[in-house]
Amino acid sequence: MTSAGLQLVRERLSGTDCVVTGGLGFIGSNLALTLADAGATVTVVDDLKAGHGGDRANVDDKQVAVIVADVGDPAHVAPAVAAADYVFDLAGQVSHVASISDPERDLALNTISRLRFLETLKRVGSRARVVYTSTRQVYGRSAPLPISERTVPHPSDVNGVAKLAAEHLHLLYARERTAILRLSNVYGPRQHLRNDELGVLPVFVRRALRGERLVVFGDGRDLRDPLHVDDVLDAIIRAALVPEAAGQVINVGHHEVLSIKQLAELTAAASSSSPTVVHDDWRSDYAQVAIGSAHLSSSLASTLLGWQPRIGFADGIDRTLAWFSQHPERFA
Amino acid sequence: MTSAGLQLVRERLSGTDCVVTGGLGFIGSNLALTLADAGATVTVVDDLKAGHGGDRANVDDKQVAVIVADVGDPAHVAPAVAAADYVFDLAGQVSHVASISDPERDLALNTISRLRFLETLKRVGSRARVVYTSTRQVYGRSAPLPISERTVPHPSDVNGVAKLAAEHLHLLYARERTAILRLSNVYGPRQHLRNDELGVLPVFVRRALRGERLVVFGDGRDLRDPLHVDDVLDAIIRAALVPEAAGQVINVGHHEVLSIKQLAELTAAASSSSPTVVHDDWRSDYAQVAIGSAHLSSSLASTLLGWQPRIGFADGIDRTLAWFSQHPERFA
Q: For A134, phi and psi rounded to 5 degrees?
């Protein structure tokens, strides 16, 4: 987060009551820590489900209260959200490949649990501003690029279907105070690296840290617009603070568009272990969820939130590798 | 169905194996009987859940095999679908008001049960052509009118969210042989009349048959494009038979656009009991799901399916009242 952005956070969020669901996960924990640093009272709700990327070690219990529960569990969630000024709803199944192996679980977690969560907010009479983080995946294979919010979504996996339904549920329950962000590929500190099913970037980062070869499937020409998590936090917090964001679905991507091959090469270049980049055939389960090139137009985010990504990939991946080098237990 | 349409059905569907989910309901039973009349072997899967509009009396057991089961129940569904040439997936929670009182049930039925149904089709290696009937409700409050398929959906109730997710699931599982139809307000023989929560048209029909006053909420100026069920059957069957319909989401509405007030007046005029039309304030639970004017552009259906609605409302409502007059047990 830029110093100007952090200043905004401190001024506006200090002393407020914030809930972060999925707050032991990658983006959630970074957000929870940023909010706590800014002087907010932060409660994290996370079910720590296996394979979802949540990790107890991601937050400092001295800074953040942690409730280990599914967001759909009203007994645990109601007390946490009753007094919240801001609810950052980041919980969710995040593995597209796991979504194929157990689609029903994905659908249930992202829709039924979310509906229960929204019913809980309604029952406690919540007036909180809400930000729900969705994903570029809701668009599926889309053209033309970059993808704008005017594009009709065609999710290409059950995860995308479920996240899109969750967006709609959010807007049904509290349109007047809820903003939806559709994020492109996010990377950075605290990302879960051990699971191959959470995306290409964490796999590259882990392999670079270990000095292993970076494997690009196919020709690696598909384009992406990766976002450093600090840029994402900036967008999430602006979406909570800017009144005009309520009721809106907003793309959050990067104007720097790179091929998967370039991502591998830049990651290798930033790594002290000098890993090689090699090509291999698609694994069939990956090929099944492959969507070709996909990147987002963030012009609405720019207009509405005054948001711009500030971290280019070469810089961002450098910072990311540096952070993990200080935390070798994360990738060993 | 027109005689030309029925001829098409007979030629193409005679001797085929057809499954109709929700086949004891309003549209489903009309479809099942039409298919059986055309010489198809028809199996109906219907859970007869209370409030869903299914009625054992809707089909003749001599013509149609009936399996009483949830579509998500593989033990009952797998044998039925294994040999099917055509699957008409019409099952689903249909009450928008009930969707408010028990949204989780609606979401579970329309998404989790549907996912299990699709998994069952996949497991038995089905190659059936599939038609899924969705609803105009997925668009929510939309502009401009008439609504085209290029409009980004913004469902205005949980039922719309769930039906849209079900559309996406269908296209994920078998895009190459599945067509999605989004239907406007449908009326006609076998519609469930006893439940006030299934839409304004069945309420008008029941009250007209009973000689009761027809109550229009508010000024009644909201526009609709009602469709007689025979026109819907024509669209459903064409969607199953036309190869180019696979992978498409297709609006099915009427070029005859009428206000709710006009619908009441035309229903009253067609009724032998000469009911009066009165205005009343909105009921709060109805107001909550009100979406203003909404009608569909069916130009894609015209181009792709060669389909046009053939029954105007004055004629269609006359036929509908005549049919129910022959079946007084349906509205007594």
A: -100, -160
Residue A158 is encoded by which pair of tokens?
């059950």
Tell me, what's the pLDDT at B278?
93
Residue A193 and residue A324 in contact, taking contact as beta carbons nearer than 8 Å: yes
Q: What is the ipTM of this complex?
A: 0.91
Nearest to A41 by CA among A50, A32, A49, A52: A32
**Per-residue pLDDT at B96:** 63
Cβ neighbours, 10 Å, residue B300: 19
Report which residue type is found at B150.
R
B59-94 as b/e, with b when 16 or more CB fall inside 10 Å?
Answer: beeeebbbbebbbbbbebbeebbbebbbbbbbbbbb
pLDDT of residue A68: 94
* B231 and B290 Cβ atoms separated by less than 8 Å: no
B154 at A interface, C-beta within 8 A? yes
Query: Under a CB-based contact definition with an 8 Å cutoff, are residues A297 and A236 in contact?
Result: no
| Residues B120-163 pLDDT 10s | 999 999 999 999 999 999 999 887 999 999 999 999 889 999 99
CB contact under 8 A, B165 and A165: yes
pLDDT digit string (tens) for A146-192? 999 999 999 988 999 999 999 999 999 999 999 999 999 999 999 98
- Are residues B169 and A152, on separate chains, in Cβ contact within 8 Å? no
Closest residue in B to A288 (Cα–Cα): B172
Q: What is the pLDDT of residues A78-116, one digit of tens each?
A: 999 999 999 999 998 666 666 677 889 888 888 999 999
- Identify the CA nearest to B90 among candidates B9, B170, B151, B10: B170
Test the B interface: residue of A158, A180, A182 with most B CBs within 10 Å: A158
Query: What is the pTM assigned to this prediction?
Result: 0.94
How many Cβ pairs within 8 Å bridge chains A and B? 71
Instruction: Please give the Cα distance from A304 to B153 (Å, whole number).
Output: 21
Element (H, E) at B53: none
Could you tell me the end-to-end alpha-carbon distance of chain A, in angstroms, rounded to an integer?
28
Quick one: residue B21, left, alpha or beta (phi over 0 = left, psi -120 to 50 = alpha)? beta
Beta-bridged to residue A19, according to DSSP, are A43, A87
Count the neighbouring beta carbons within 10 Å of the beta carbon of residue B243.
9
Quick one: pLDDT at residue B142?
Answer: 81
Instruction: Give the chain A residue whose CA is nearest to the CA of B148.
Output: A152
**Set of chain B residues whose Cβ sits within 8 Å of the Cβ of A154:** 168, 171
Contact A327, A202 (CB under 8 A): no
